[in-house]
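<instruction>
Derive structure tokens from the sequence
<data>
Labelled lines for chain and fold:
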Amino acid sequence: MRQQIELLPADSYWHSLAKLALSDDLNDLQRSIALEALGHGDGNAGEVLDRWEHGNRQALDRAQRLLVELQETPGSDLAMLSVALRSCATWSEAAQRHRCSPPPSSAPSWPAPSGGRCCCWC
């Protein structure tokens, strides 16, 4: 997405500002995701990342589909990238609000079977 933002034309002052704003928003999103991932407990980097990916599978799948669609669509423009970035940010925020927690001790297994919609016992 960063490369696509950089390739956008900046024909006017406002287009230049819009490109800068998109780049800033992408930086903020990447920082937020990194901090969220680092907050998923102790262990080596691979284990922490695996736990984070498991807990955010739905948002990751959506973001991946959206990024593939952007790559396959010729001529990405400011509107497309703005909406795509906003969608990714919204999914990230929703995933952060939806903190997974361990099941009660009486729960039969972990992770909970959830029909693919959620990764936890909520």
User: Anything to note?
Assistant: Residues 2-97 form one domain. Residues 13-38 form the longest helix (26 residues).
